[in-house]
Model the fold of this input.
Amino acid sequence: MSEPLSPTDKVRLAKEISDGVKRYIAIQNGLLKFSFAKALGFRSSDPTAAANAASDLRGELSPLLDQLRAHELSDQFSITLRGYLRQLLQAMDVFLALCGRLAEARAAKDKAYLRKGGFKADLEKLQEAERAYLVLG
Done:
């Protein structure tokens, strides 16, 4: 069995995860947050750019989960941190899928996706996935 995480490693991992969450929220807000400029057509959000940024961020956070898995987790903080990160990565997968469907709908000029509930259903899936990691945080 491997060694437990040192206090220094716990702090470093927690800080990296916290920074990742802040960046993830900024990416999400850039795509999904309402603004009058977007509503009036002065500004447009780009789901492909958001997906690329989120995918890059996911690639940065995934090794952290591997680091947590490589150690014996003997305290509640480490166990919770691993579960939190796992749920965060799953929420990011849902967000990436939403970005993909939104980009496809925009490319096809398919407004039915936005108006007939497809987008709303995808947002509800995202909210459910986010609740899972927020409950742990």
Q: What stands out?
A: The chain has a mean pLDDT of 89.
